[in-house]
Amino acid sequence: MQNYYLLIVRKYIIKLICACVPSKKMRRKIRRAMAQPKIIPLVEIDNVIPKDVLDKIESYDNAFYYKHNSEILVGGGGT
Q: What burial letters (b/e) apply to 49-73, b meaning 16+ CB within 10 Å?
């Protein structure tokens, strides 16, 4: 929910800044630079995850996760 509010605040900050810039070309550059989602390489994410957890995740293949997620979604899997 907090990310939603950050996106709204960013949107209005961009609008405010663009209202002060007379050039359409510059406004477009500002919007593109500030509003574009940032791409985070997987290498950076792997550096944040503890090594033992990352090894455990990588020990399973994708089919395991597809099966596990479908059981949770369909069967509920609750306690």
A: eeeeeeeeeeeeeeeeeeeeeeeee
